[in-house]
Backbone:
């Protein structure tokens, strides 16, 4: 069966999004470790003139690991929608002061998470209510990590400046 013709420019947009996602993941070596795909295959996914596209399972694995929404944003744009992050990224022009705030936030949420877990385990038994409290603190810490990770990824994407 022949593949249907895609709108002009769509493959280029998919390939550009693939390159952005690989960069956000930390490069070909990280994507190779995450997906098990060879570097040669990853290169094919990124090349405009090669017909291979990154499979959805690889996109999902990378998006889950990196919290990168490149493909979701591309699809939303094509459908005239907007992707709104659950966790805010903060200013797009992150500087050292912003990362000090991130460091403080990571220390705070990490300490709150550990404190909640320690309190829950103090009697060597964790109740369902205590588990919910700990899970809530873990979620807050993950959001702080995600926000910091996204801001660092934006800085890393600027290149070797």
Residues:
């Amino acid at each position: 069966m022949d593949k249907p013709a895609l709108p002009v420019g769509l493959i280029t947009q998919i390939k550009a999004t693939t390159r952005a996602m690989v960069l956000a993941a930390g490069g070909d070596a990280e994507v190779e470790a995450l997906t098990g795909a060879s570097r040669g295959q990853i290169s094919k996914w990124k090349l405009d003139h090669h017909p291979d596209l990154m499979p959805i399972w690889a996109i999902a694995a990378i998006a889950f690991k990196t919290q990168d929404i490149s493909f979701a944003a591309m699809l939303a744009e094509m459908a005239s929608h907007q992707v709104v992050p659950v966790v805010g990224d903060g200013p797009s022009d992150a500087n050292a002061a912003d990362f000090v705030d991130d460091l403080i936030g990571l220390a705070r949420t990490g300490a709150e998470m550990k404190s909640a877990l320690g309190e829950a385990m103090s009697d060597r038994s964790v109740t369902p209510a205590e588990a919910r409290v700990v899970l809530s603190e873990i979620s807050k810490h993950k959001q702080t990590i995600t926000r910091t990770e996204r801001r660092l990824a934006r800085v890393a994407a600027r290149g070797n400046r």
Observations:
- The chain has a mean pLDDT of 84.
